[in-house]
Amino acid sequence: MQRRVALFGLVCMSLGGAFLGFRVVVSLGTGHSEMLLHPSMVLHLLAALSLGVLWLYCRTGRRRSQDVHLAEALALLASTGFYTAMAAYIPLMARPDFIVLSALHYGVVGRAVFVPSSPTRTAAITALVGVPVVVGTFFTYRGADLSGLPEAFRPEIQPAQIAAGAAVWWGLTLALATLTTHVIYGLRREIRQARQLGQYTLEEKLGEGGMGIVYRARHAMLRRPTAIKLLAPEKAGEDTIARFEREVQLTARLTHPNTVTVFDYGRTPDGIFYYAMELLDGATLEQVVEVSGAQPPGRVVHIIRQIASALVEAHSVGLIHRDIKPANVILCQRGGMPDVAKVVDFGLVKQLEPEGAALTRTGAITGTPMYLPPEAIQAPNKVDARSDLYALGAVAYYLLVGDHVFPGKTVVEVCSHHVRTVPPLPSERAGAPVPFDLEALVMSCLEKNPDRRPASATELLDKLDACTRPKPWSRADAMRWWEVHGQRFREARTRSNATVSSTIAIDLLHR
């Protein structure tokens, strides 16, 4: 988009400069060199330079999309203002309003064809550009010198009527530009969704996270359902690319059946990074609670045990997930077994070894506010394996209660509770009995002091086994749940994309 906007600015500047050059040649050829400093010439030059500034801005460095949109709007507004003001210095016999309207009409419609933009943005920019056109037309005719016009035409010069005509014309221009963008935007979106990535064909967008977009895809030869995670192009800075590569490399090292499996990694010809992983066609724990509320203790133990098992492997190779939360655990069916938990999204994973330090920002809070351990807020550099256990305890609490440990309206409020507030017992929040030793284990994971939590994921597993077993969660129980709630989950999938449990990154050193 930035490249297209830059090229659009260059083309418009070149066309404006070409017509200005033509006027200069005509002025010199007819012996009217004084016209070179005429106000219309100066305004014409400023209009072309405004678009040249847009070209220079967009061709140097990587800009945020919001900054490019703002620069484009300002450049077009400035250029339109100069061209409209220029019309006031052109004789009315030449119909300067018609010249400006025609030129801007083709420019705006050309932008709709060439620059990637949503219909709403195109309509907004076109309407914005139309304001100086209509207002300028009115004042051009209101203050015009009519002495050079035949007397028969003078009574017909009504500034308000001519401005109204310009407004109607510009309204048609707005409709045409918006319709053009709507058609092309839809075609671009369809092409993007069907983009071929090596041996993979993208089929459907599944979700979007802090670092990338996930699509359902299939392999051309194997016909294997696959999930493809793309690094969003606007986020593809050097640090982000390094983190993205590191995510796939670290995830690929993990082989536990409760950790998502990575198949492949690559880069498209146009520079988009991606990796392929197993398609988990199930429900996140967040969606499970959304459709059926608090979960039976037996199911909670069944799920937490699988997550803890996955963390045993990750921690044993020196990796901390740092973003364990319901949205990052997917329940799916594997090998005919329902309720198989899969831990996903290792985008914030931290290596305990020194070589990982370069990509983990010092003094930065990273994670999801509802599941941040106190040390991640107070001393981010001291995060260790026990921090994942705090988040896992918060997930267990969420499943037992059907709500977050500390629901709050702001990030600051939630983080403050994690640091200072002792949460009520799950049985008190849920209004239902929870096995005493299971409840005590969950609360021990939520201790503020890491030394008072289970020392490792292995110890957590041992304590789970030692708990008084609640009613076991059987395969038949899981099958019945999916029969009852599966359809509701599919209907709720699109409603679950926007959630308060989003991942944050706060750089404390630069605040």
Overview of the structural elements:
This protein has 511 residues and is α+β, with helices and mostly antiparallel strands. The protein folds into 3 domains: 2-193, no CATH class; 196-278, Phosphorylase Kinase, domain 1, CATH 3.30.200; 283-510, Transferase(Phosphotransferase) domain 1 (Transferase(Phosphotransferase), domain 1), CATH 1.10.510. It has 16 helices and 13 strands. Strands 1-2-3-4-6-5 form a 6-stranded antiparallel β-sheet, with helices on one face. A 3-stranded antiparallel β-sheet has the order 7-9-10. It has a two-stranded antiparallel ribbon with strand order 8-11. Helix 4 (96-114) runs antiparallel to helix 5 (119-142). The chain is elongated and about 100 Å long. The relative contact order is 0.07. Mean pLDDT is 80; it is low at 352-363 and 494-511.
Topology readout:
Layout: H1 2-29, H2 39-59, H3 65-87, H4 96-114, H5 119-142, H6 159-193, E1 196-197, E2 200-208, E3 212-219, E4 225-231, H7 238-252, E5 262-267, E6 273-278, E7 283-284, H8 285-292, H9 297-316, E8 319-320, E9 329-334, E10 337-343, E11 350-351, E12 364-367, H10 374-378, H11 385-401, H12 411-420, H13 426-430, H14 436-445, H15 457-466, H16 475-492, E13 504-507
Antiparallel strand pairs: 1-2, 2-3, 3-4, 4-6, 5-6, 7-9, 8-11, 9-10, 12-13
